[in-house]
């Protein structure tokens, strides 16, 4: 599995595209946080990174698909998937290697955003609520794990990287936003719309971002990730 992680790492950063993807994410985030009036952290009147964590799920709809789109699509296109199959690797090890390599790249991008944390902490009088910031980063990383698992699965279904990118972005948008805005309706005095919203990522992400590391939220994220990784493994078996 470490061989796959190393291979993916070298492939992603072998050209300018990998660096550009991360730099563009950080630049767009910085512009939104420090220059756009509606989201400017300096104009908020208090030290908070709420706008950053509200914008990040949307920005990651671009970054994560850009990282995952070539996971398997490029292997199919270049014919290297046959070589991977010839290695003494289990399908699950191959999938996990791809998944953890994506998480490692995402972790670097998120680590780059810490400059905003230190900047705001330095400029504020009383500092930041470090507990809330830590909880938000944990939630953001788990959200990225869900996006990554979806992206890897979709990449295993297509040999076209651009198609993988677009479908992954759309699928992640659906799982994050659509369930969150499901209208409330009652059956037998129960708000069914609320329970449907729990099927989406947004409510669980927001809970963790508030610092509530509830067991049900952790189980949700882990379950969704395992589901898509399992489906990826099944898709690879079909490709054999």
Q: What structural class is derived from the secondary structure elements? A: mainly alpha
Q: Give, in order, the helices and strands.
A: HHHHHHHHHEEHHH
User: What strand order characterises the main sheet?
Assistant: 1-2
Helix content: over 70%
Note the beta-strand portion. Answer: under 5%
**Overall form:** globular
Largest sheet: 2 strands, antiparallel
Low-confidence stretches: none
User: Could you tell me how far the N terminus lies from the C terminus, measured between alpha carbons in angstroms?
Assistant: 19 Å
Mean of all residue-level pLDDT scores? 81
State the helix count.
Answer: 12
Rg calc:
19 Å
Strand element count: 2
Commentary on this structure:
It is a single chain. This protein is mainly alpha-helical and 240 residues long. 73% of the residues lie in helices and 2% in strands. It has a two-stranded antiparallel ribbon with strand order 1-2. The chain is globular and about 60 Å long. The chain starts with a helix and ends with a helix.
Topology, pairings included?
Elements: H1 2-12, H2 16-34, H3 50-68, H4 73-78, H5 81-86, H6 91-112, H7 114-123, H8 130-155, H9 161-178, E1 186-187, E2 190-191, H10 192-197, H11 202-209, H12 215-239
Antiparallel strand pairs: 1-2
Helix pairs in contact: 1-6, 2-3, 3-8, 3-9, 6-8, 6-12, 8-9, 8-11, 8-12, 11-12
